[in-house]
Amino acid sequence: QQQVKQSPQSLIVQKGGISIINCAYENTAFDYFPWYQQFPGKGPALLIAIRPDVSEKKEGRFTISFNKSAKQFSLHIMDSQPGDSATYFCAASGPGGFKTIFGAGTRLFVKA
Amino acid sequence: DAGVTQSPTHLIKTRGQHVTLRCSPISGHKSVSWYQQVLGQGPQFIFQYYEKEERGRGNFPDRFSARQFPNYSSELNVNALLLGDSALYLCASSLYRGPNQPQHFGDGTRLSIL
To answer: How far apart are CA B12 and CA B111, in angstroms?
Structure first.
């Protein structure tokens, strides 16, 4: 119940294309869903986050779509750039719990 | 403003030894969490400290312990090191307690066990 399943494991996208990463969770008590970006040798950096009372949140080229009934959420990166090449992690956390559960990560490579 | 700082950046130990990792949170942040990230996987929660008290613990053995100091900096201690403890150890700070606060990560300590 504490798992967050992330797919795909790796993704190759052409420059200018749309990158889509999907995550699914089981625990309906989760109420905060952040996405993190991690470059080699660096710690994860918060990219964008959403709460389940909202179905979509957009910040620049990054959009989270949230489907509460399906217990799924996804990250869309529009106009993908080579500089977006990194590992992306979805995560989930909730009240009463204090730990953030991370997905296994998606390695994104954007071809120039 | 300085971000979350961790020291040392790299460390090599042998099985059975103990290790202390250090973390300084962003100024004003009162909550510190520790995560273990094995190569190719997502970070796994170890501890959260808030106002110098342990507020949460993940599924890690008692060989792992931590503490938070009055200035909100924190130490993670691991005793009787095993080969499987080789990982990147990440510290994250947030302004307040609670999982819904944005967490800011340091760049981690890379621990290698020989």
So the answer is: 6
